[in-house]
Design a protein that fits this description.
The protein is an alpha+beta fold. It has 9 helices and 20 strands. Strands 2-3-7-6-5-8 form a 6-stranded antiparallel beta barrel. Strands 16-17-18-20-19 form a 5-stranded mixed β-sheet. It has a 4-stranded antiparallel β-sheet with strand order 9-10-15-14. β9 and β10 form a beta hairpin. α2 packs across α3 and α6 packs parallel to α7. It starts with a strand and ends with a helix.
Length: 383
């Protein structure tokens, strides 16, 4: 059995170990050591990465009682210097310990159970079995950060059977055999196999990002520690950029955006009126004909475009409007009062390299043929 150094010292990032076996596996070479500080994937947390000698550790799994380090090259039996990716391990411990604090407080205050947990590189997701509203979640977040400030000790241990039977602790499932308990004094006691920080002060910051209903409860997105600092830095940079674009102070961005959206709505309403007027003027340019009318325009709104096609459809066999460019492709609206366009759609699309369909009076779609080809075909087409 490999000695699990990560249980004895979660802050052990460099150590020596002997290679007991090495065999080729899927995606690399599976190396078993006599001792390891590399945490294998488990408990919702991904495996550590790093190096064993010159071999890069890509993943770690525990299977059939063995801790197998998936490496990018083979290693001969012998003694090697080993090193974890320190920053990655530290951030994961900050996040996982922060999740315990948050879940423990939510459990004590509101009786919710953590029924799902997953840690990705960018954030964590937590599933609670009951819904909590914004005020309740904000309260949990605030108290979690007070617990961080208090620098409460975190203890991870394996109680014997008698002690375990007397302990009240959180667990997502029934556990057999030895159970590892992670205890945060006065805050939480939970079964967990992952490495944790030694005290809550190391977590640094607990920040709730999102909350959404999920299977009768709520799914939260949470980040802690340096991940939360990085997230704050990115948002500050974004807020500063938006502040400059809007000529507004950073704490006045929301009202400035509100005013901008209001102005946009007003402009869209004006544009709609003007576009409808333009469609009417444009339709008057065309005289009635027994043939077809094909128009290229990229100014009309969608509603005005349909209005133009309807007006032109009263003057000809088939009225076709194309919006776009040869480079970017065309969107089309084709209408008629005399021709069943549904039966003609296949032939039209074949002629203009298009895709689309619709009703007998109007079809819509896209085309990639150049404007010259489209115009020539409609000038000659007989329906």
């Amino acid at each position: 059995m490999t000695e699990k150094l990560y249980y004895a010292d979660s802050h052990l990032f460099a150590f020596e170990a002997s290679v007991l076996s090495c065999r080729e596996g899927k995606g690399g070479f599976e190396i078993v050591l006599d001792r390891t500080a590399f945490f294998p994937e488990g408990g919702g947390q991904s495996a550590d990465t790093g190096r064993i000698g010159e071999a890069r550790v890509l993943d770690v799994h525990e299977r059939d009682g063995e801790i197998r380090h998936l490496c990018d090259r083979a290693l001969a039996p012998g003694r090697y210097d080993c090193e974890l990716d320190r920053e990655k391990r530290l951030r994961r411990m900050q996040n996982h310990s922060g999740e315990h604090v948050f879940s423990g407080i939510a459990h004590k205050k509101f009786g919710v159970e953590n029924v799902g947990f997953h840690m990705a590189d960018e954030c964590m997701t937590i599933d609670f079995d009951k819904e909590l509203d914004f005020e309740q979640l904000s309260e949990v977040e605030y108290e979690a950060n007070l617990a961080v400030r208090a620098n409460v000790p975190i203890r991870a241990y394996f109680p014997d059977a008698a002690e375990l039977a007397s302990l009240a602790y959180r667990s997502k499932k029934e556990l057999d055999g030895a159970v590892r308990i992670v205890e945060i004094a006065g805050i939480d006691r939970c079964a967990c196999c992952a490495p944790h920080v030694s005290a809550t002060g190391e977590i640094g910051l607990v920040k709730l990002l999102t909350a959404e209903r999920h299977r009768g409860g709520v799914r939260l997105t949470l980040i802690c520690g340096m991940d939360a600092i990085d997230d704050y830095r990115r948002k500050q940079q974004s807020a500063t950029a938006i502040s400059g674009l809007l000529s507004a102070k950073r704490d006045e961005i929301a009202p400035a955006v509100g005013r901008l959206l209001e102005t946009e709505t007003q402009l869209k309403e004006r544009l709609s009126v003007l576009s409808m007027g333009y469609a009417g003027l444009l339709s008057e340019r065309y005289e009635p004909t027994e043939g077809n009318i094909c128009v290229f325009d990229d100014v009309l709104s969608d509603a005005a475009a349909r209005e133009l096609v309807n007006r032109l459809g009263e003057k000809c066999a088939v009225a076709a409007l194309f919006m776009g460019s040869d480079e970017m492709g065309w969107r089309y609206i084709i209408g008629s009062r005399r021709v069943d366009l549904r039966t003609c759609a296949k032939a039209i699309n074949a002629a203009i390299s298009g895709r689309g369909g619709g009703r007998s009076e109007m079809i819509q779609g896209s085309a990639s043929a150049p404007a010259k080809t489209i115009q020539s075909w409609f000038d000659q087409a007989c329906f």
